[in-house]
């Protein structure tokens, strides 16, 4: 359930060329609301592990990405779905709000199928 850090050098590969949908948290170390969003990103990463990647981008350390996506306010949370135009919201959002905004319910990983175990029945013993 690791949240990855993207940089100007890795963003294209990690986000734009990802086979899975990616939620990107554009943040800065000095931003109070960004600190409030961080636990929501951890929850999102845990809930959608294996189905949706979660990536953080420090806008101060990576100005190229910020400029390319016209990030003017932070926190900005963006959703990149392969083959679709990115969507974004500005400001603090709880997990449930992000799920609704980006339609994430369709990406919830299916629970693993239970493994059937054979149990002997009373009439199966060989004598």
Primary descriptors:
single chain, 127 residues, alpha/beta, Glutaredoxin, five-stranded mixed sheet, 4 helices, 28% helix
Q: How many β-strands, per DSSP?
A: 5
Sequence stretches where pLDDT stays below 50 over 5 or more residues: none
β-sheet strand percentage: 15-25%
* H and E string: EHEHEHEEH
Major beta sheet, specifics?
5 strands, mixed
Mean pLDDT value: 88
Separation of the first and last Cα atoms: 52 Å
Commentary on this structure:
This protein is of the alpha/beta class and 127 residues long. The protein has a domain at 20-103: Glutaredoxin (3-Layer(aba) Sandwich). It has helices at residues 11-16, 32-47, 63-68, 95-102, and strands at residues 4-5, 22-27, 53-58, 76-80, 87-90. A five-stranded mixed β-sheet has the order 1-3-2-4-5. The protein is globular and about 45 Å long. The model has no long low-confidence stretch (mean pLDDT 88).
């Amino acid at each position: 359930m690791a949240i990855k850090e993207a940089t100007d050098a890795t963003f294209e590969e990690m986000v734009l060329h990802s086979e899975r949908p990616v939620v990107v948290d554009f943040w800065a170390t000095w931003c109070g609301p960004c600190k409030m969003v961080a636990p929501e990103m951890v929850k999102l990463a845990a809930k959608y592990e294996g189905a949706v990647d979660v990536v953080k981008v420090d806008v101060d350390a990576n100005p190229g990405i910020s400029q390319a996506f016209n990030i003017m306010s932070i926190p900005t949370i963006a959703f990149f779905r392969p083959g679709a135009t990115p969507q974004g919201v500005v400001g603090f959002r709880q997990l449930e709000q992000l799920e609704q905004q980006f339609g994430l319910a369709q990406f919830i990983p299916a629970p693993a199928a239970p493994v059937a175990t054979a149990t002997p029945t009373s009439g199966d013993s060989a004598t």
